[in-house]
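for the recovery benchmark. tokens below, seq after
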């Protein structure tokens, strides 16, 4: 098996249908399987999959496991040399998957690649970043983020000093769409399930770098991401009262406790 496409769904039955149809539109030149993991949606997803996509392997969890644990359920049964991990809010262009696949084939030291994500209007969506410091989360959610030196720091974290038009190594990429080498997963391990939602992609990419596997951003592979940052709907400290923001903050805390006293790897991204 060349490629396993693992799609994680939680109460987005319509988007899941569109995502599967989008993947199936293209006649990929390699052997592919699709695995859908439903995170206890209880919204008719099971019935829809049975009726419309009976040949696709369908895993239904007994509770909402969160992002990392849900993806792990699909990764454990995947047979592909590479795994394409997708959220349901992804629309794939015809050359995106072959481009990512070809990039991995020609870069044997790379463990994870991420595409150039764009918004529905075609504008670039930020999807690659430098590793955060303890201050990153605080400054992004406080008035201090408006100070000139802090704005410069945050621009660097968000890689706004990069035009996103060239492929290159990066610290970490957004987990909404990533192609991962199975051999590398065997070295690094699965997603850390202590993170229910958010930051698990940051943590995973860091572990890949620490294990000797590279993480790259591939600009030639373009994918639309209908992204809604729930944790950012209420910016500033007022956002702490929303569930998504509280979960995000909890994940940040777990991340920094995990890596307390350890220097983050920045193998290539310090300067351009």
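predicted aa per position
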């Amino acid at each position: 098996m060349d490629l396993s496409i693992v799609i994680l769904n939680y109460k987005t039955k319509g988007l899941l249908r569109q995502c599967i149809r989008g993947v199936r539109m293209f006649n990929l030149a390699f052997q592919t399987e699709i695995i859908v993991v439903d995170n206890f949606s209880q919204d008719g997803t099971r019935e829809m999959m049975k009726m419309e996509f009976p040949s696709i392997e369908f895993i239904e969890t007994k509770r909402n496991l969160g992002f990392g644990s849900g993806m792990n359920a699909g990764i454990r049964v995947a047979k592909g040399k590479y795994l394409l991990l997708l959220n349901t809010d992804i629309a794939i262009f015809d050359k995106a998957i072959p481009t990512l696949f070809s990039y991995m084939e020609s870069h044997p030291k790379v463990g994870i690649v991420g595409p150039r994500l764009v918004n529905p209007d075609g504008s670039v969506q930020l999807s690659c970043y430098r590793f955060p410091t303890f201050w990153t989360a605080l400054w992004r959610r406080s008035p201090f983020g408006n100070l000139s030196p802090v704005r410069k720091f945050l621009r660097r974290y968000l890689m706004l000093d990069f035009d996103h038009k060239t492929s290159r190594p990066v610290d970490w990429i957004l987990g909404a769409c990533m192609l991962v080498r199975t051999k590398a997963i065997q070295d690094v391990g699965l997603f850390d399930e202590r993170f229910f939602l958010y930051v698990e992609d940051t943590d995973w990419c860091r572990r890949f770098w620490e294990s000797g596997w590279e993480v790259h951003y591939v600009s030639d592979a373009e994918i639309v991401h209908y992204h809604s940052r729930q944790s950012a709907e209420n910016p500033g400290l007022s956002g702490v009262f929303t569930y998504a923001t509280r979960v995000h903050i909890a994940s940040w805390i777990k991340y920094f406790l995990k890596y307390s006293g350890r220097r983050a790897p920045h193998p290539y991204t310090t300067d351009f």
